Request: fold
Amino acid sequence: MISFNVPPYIGKEQDYIMDAINAHKICGDGSFTKKCNKWIEDRMGAHKALLATSGSTALDMAAILTEVGPGDEVILPSYTFVSTANAFVLRGAQLVFVDIRPDTQNIDEKLIEDAITERTKVIVPVHYAGVGCEMDTIMDIAKKHGLMVVEDAAQGVYAFYKGRGLGSIGDYGCYSFHETKNYSMGEGGALLIRDEDKTERAEIIREKGTDRSKFLRGAIDKYTWVDMGSSYLPSELNAAYLLAELEEADMINDNRLASWNAYYELLTPLAEEGRIVLPVVPEECSHNAHMFYIKTANIEERTALTSFLKENGIGSAFHYVPLHSSPAGARFGRFHGEDKYTTNTFERLLRLPMYYGLKPEEVEYITEKIKEFYR
Reply:
């Protein structure tokens, strides 16, 4: 059986976890957490990075920092994971969904401005499959209307838009280090902060609303409760696992890209025949091979292909049920404009196995079975 996903494992993870245990420092913000934060800052270009317990809680922190509340509106795609929406729903904001582009599955930047009202406060682009949204246009719109931008870059670690790290372009960026991501700590994430003057409050929110971070730096002689917040700080054991992979990020990235490129080359004949649609990566984007997907003709064909692959020992998956069509989406938001591509993409897109260590012969077997299905 070829699994749909296998969590990354380099070999140093256990050693680093034991180092944390032997140092008697397993709660957050130890040396491993600090090294992970610095790696993100140096490689992705953020002013400050703060590890979090998940991509979801990184989004929660970002939502608090934007100060959205009841009566405010947030523009985002409906084709995304629920965490993107939940972070702002928890603050009482109203969601305004817009359609996606048919090429990248990212929010259609040309539809954003028409969805803006006097209540709009935040735009949330989601970088699907580690392929950057059209960020220059989005940032120009945000500047023109005085809006904040929170990048959901859960899938965008070590991916770039015009040379800039995904997650570092907007006011805030959010990463996920879930076991399905390119670099993992089991459950975890990170908040990226672009502007220096936003760092102190982010640290306070992350430390349960206290100024403990300043105390640990020796800036104050005691710490106290100064703002809202929660326990968003991950264990040092999780950070130790993650650091082992970040230190080998280039190797992991190259391995995944090799699999992605092999998929693309081997499936191109089917795409040229018009049987399937392959991923599109705009010239200005450097993706991270987070996933490889194909689009079938319709949901019936995808269902049949999924079953065929399973019968041949191949795991596959599809997502996302469009948020605006869900009970909570209807309750907390509205779709602005026409749903031309969101539901259509949900019904046609199928993700193929993609992980560090996927063997070339496995990619060849998978693509041969897909060709066999269409024959």
The longest helix spans residues 249-272. The first strand starts at residue 48 and ends at 52. The chain has two domains: 13-246, 249-374. Residues 60 and 328 are 18 Å apart (CA to CA).
